[in-house]
Amino acid sequence: MSNQYDQSQGRRPGLGDLFGRVLDRDNPVIEQLDRNARSLAQSALAKLDVVSRAEFDAQTEVLRRTRQRVEELEQTLDALTARVENNQTPTD
């Protein structure tokens, strides 16, 4: 039976050492798992109703301009309402 202690450091290999060997990027099994995981993730994302970052940014800008325009129209409406109310106020 081989000695499981790391002779250079006087300790047993830890989980980090074990995972490091198992998850070595040159391991063909890991490469295949990585490709499969990426493919699965891309497939799942394709099924979702998502938009690109560029589309999101464009719609955010449209919304910002729309909100600004609504605020301007609210101010105009308030001013017109005040004028109408002032003109309809009975003078004594």
Automatic annotation (TrEMBL):
The keyword Calcium does not apply. Keywords: Coiled coil. Residues 56-83 form a coiled coil. Pfam families: BMFP (PF04380). GO terms for cellular component: cytosol. This is Ubiquinone biosynthesis accessory factor UbiK. It comes from Luminiphilus syltensis NOR5-1B. The lineage of its organism: Bacteria, Pseudomonadati, Pseudomonadota, Gammaproteobacteria, Cellvibrionales.
